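From the shared-data thread, chain only:
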Amino acid sequence: MSEVLYKVLHEDGTGGYTDFVWPKPRGKRPGKWVRAKGNLIVCENGLHLLRRDDLVHWLDRHIYIAEAREERFDSDNKIVVREARLIRKLDIWDGRVARLFACDCAERALRRVTAKHGKQDPRSWAAIRVARRFACGEASADDLQTASYAAWAASDAARAASDATRAAWAARAARAASYATMAAWAARAARAASYATMAAEYEWQTARLFEYLDGKRGVE
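Structure, as tokens:
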């Protein structure tokens, strides 16, 4: 079975840090092939795609299955290729799923910090609960905003302990209005909860993310 590759795009169809708009798939037809000129240099020149374990680092508005051909160079959390195209969009990745995934990451971060430092500020836990309820249509935007302010206050109160601060950041991320930024922020905050276990956090988050993307985790 060939390796599945991914491309993450912003709302406007651009990816990464350029203004290039990728050709989109139409129905069952893949997008047009795109070809890079010049020497392939990671983060500088070429078409950048993601492997399964890379995806959690780059979450954004749209996730596509992609295909590559010709030259390829692998980096730590991305690859750069000569030619690529988009095959299909993962429609399951929407605001609701992104927020639920962020809530999972935030809860994990708070649990880890609680185990290490003891009971955490209840406002951080409350922010995650409200964010989850909002994702499921059970809380209003006003509820989310109130939880947002409380989560900010909790993170400010936790600044004396860096681990606790990161966990509170995760709680703030879980309620954020911009779900694309929120999902990536929550993932980073959860990973940073313990530098000694960062590799394990990457592994856990990737597994949880694909439970959603593969439709194996319900979002009722």
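Residues 5-89 form one domain.
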